[in-house]
Design brief:
Length: 196
């Protein structure tokens, strides 16, 4: 009888733990964060495998608004390796990967031939700016106030695109990832070295 009570108690605790991780926002957040850490340690791969088709030409058409309200053309980034992330302040998965992007940016921000374009899709750009400032992120953000071109259009966020200096899409991922890994930094820096 005592064994049955202990077994029942263990099963109840197990069930409650599973319910917490699968049905509560806090549990889902912890689960996503643990998964991203495991991706960063190369224990598991990203949930969605990135596409690494190096034959796709990137479309440099279009402009965005920077944090000061200036128009910025994609054309001005030709010849650089581009790390482009499409996100919104209300997007939970976007928020989860931001610390990893911020860490990656901190390590590569002085590399002049790599550009980070964090493209916000919030209707109100002030929400995007406030989110970045509240979190203390220092990477540059841009507003997609005129929409996204064919190379960047996506039905889901976050979406990350890496463009080589030659204008080829060398990485495309729709979903979250821990980008602050040796392997990903190598992808960015090897692309930027070919431009020299």
């Amino acid at each position: 009888m005592l064994k049955n009570k202990i077994l029942f108690s263990l099963l109840a605790v197990l069930f409650l733990g599973i319910a917490f991780f699968y049905f509560t926002e806090k549990g889902k957040h912890i689960k996503r964060r643990v998964r991203l850490e495991l991706v960063g340690m190369n224990v598991i791969g990203p949930k969605n495998e990135p596409k690494t088709d190096t034959e796709t030409e990137f479309d440099y058409a279009g402009t965005f608004m920077d944090m000061e309200g200036n128009r910025v053309s994609l054309n001005q980034f030709k010849g650089k390796t581009l790390f482009i992330n499409i996100w919104a302040s209300w997007c939970g998965p976007c928020r989860i990967e931001m610390p990893y992007i911020h860490s990656l940016y901190g390590k590569l921000k002085d590399t002049t031939d790599i550009a980070f374009l964090m493209i916000a899709t919030d209707e109100d750009f002030n929400k995007s700016k406030n989110f970045i400032q509240d979190k203390g992120y220092t990477f540059p953000i841009y507003h997609a106030d005129e929409g996204l071109n064919s190379s960047l259009f996506t039905k889901a966020i976050p979406t990350t695109v890496v463009v080589s200096p030659e204008g080829k899409v060398i990485y495309y991922l729709n979903g979250t990832n821990n980008f602050d890994t040796d392997q990903f930094r190598d992808l960015l820096t090897s692309g930027s070295q070919t431009a020299r």
